[in-house]
Amino acid sequence: MWRSSTHGYDIVDHDEVDPRLGDDDDFDELVAACHQRGLRVLLDGVFNHVSANHADVMAARRDGIDSPAGRLFRHDAGQPDGLARFEGHDGLVEYDHSNPAVADRVVATMTHWLRRGADGWRLDAAYRVPRPFWAGVVSRVNAEFPQALTVAEVLHGDYARFAAETGIDSVTQYELWKALWSALKDRNPHELSWTLQRLATGMAESAGFLPWTFVGNHDVTRIASQVGQHDAVTAAALLATLPGMPAIYYGDEYGLTGIKEERVGGDDAIRPELPSDPDGWLSVEQVPGDSGDVGVGDDQLSDAHVSGAEVLRQHQLLFGLRRRHAWIQWADLSIVEQRHQRLTYRVSARLADGALADGAQRGSGGQHLDISLDTSGSRSRVTISDNDGVLYQW
């Protein structure tokens, strides 16, 4: 989004659209088109570090680390220029978040683009930034934009506590991501069971905390490459029935594959260019022997062929089901049974207790879904049911 040196996370100007993507008019057109379709636009905020080519970094090198520009960044005596690098990346210089001038810059950038029509922010590498910094920034931004959504990238730890201490709305659930694909790949749902209980506890103990759940994103191997496309649909079924704010990484709904590699250019395979034709990924096929059952009432597909169109259809069925049971977002979660390679959990609508901080309403009590996962065979099986019977099988 922002003008950068190379890959987009080495920012050289937070207030300018990268010319490779377009200009201010293109941004305005994109936001307007999204809003016309009922879509909200979250921007990726890179506020932990900037490019080594950023004008302030250049000024710090020229004027010294004790200059106003130099004090914007963390210091590291081990670096030739005395400026700290982000996780060993020579091209990324870290801000000093104890400097109030840095907080002012971040607030100015966030509010600038919210005024331009953006609806919220994903906060990149939020785990590297002190929590009091985020608390101050978020409170200032929320004072002008109380409806803006903030999502923090956090890898490990107590996600609910992070949200409580920063005021950030949602936090990435990497523990759940790992447990979901591990359960399917290793045919062992025990880690998933433990993680689901941890997820439920965090939501129960932290009012208003809504986890950001996912099975894929721009930093990890595609779910279809981790577990195969059949089990990737199973993962989507689990994601669709868990409380929180589920995110689908573009292309996963077609069964795209791609392996993350730890090298320069190692993200390319998981970040393909969008096809010029909206139906360009519909022909994505599974490998022979990797198909499965489809929604209730459909014939079993051939083991030799499942198209990207079918993977897409299953996502539509699953998230259509979720939309019809909107209370799942804030549902209580409990483990019904865990036995060998089988796991059943229940999501139950909380009793209505008034509007939440964001104006959303929790569901009325009495409704529940049971989700049964069977990993004992060569292909996983998942069943979603309520008191009236089976709603979905794969």
Count the beta strands: 16
Level-2 CATH architecture? Alpha-Beta Barrel
Strand order, largest beta sheet: 12-13-14-15-16
Largest sheet: 5 strands, antiparallel
The radius of gyration computed from the alpha-carbon positions, rounded to a whole number of angstroms, is 22 Å
CATH fold call: TIM Barrel
CATH homolog superfamily: Glycosidases
Question: What is the percentage of strand-forming residues?
Answer: 15-25%
The helix content, as a percent range, equals 25-40%
Look at the structure and give the mean pLDDT: 90
* Separation, N- and C-terminal Cα atoms: 38 Å
Runs in which pLDDT lies below 50 for 5 or more consecutive residues are 286-304, 354-364
Helix count equals: 10
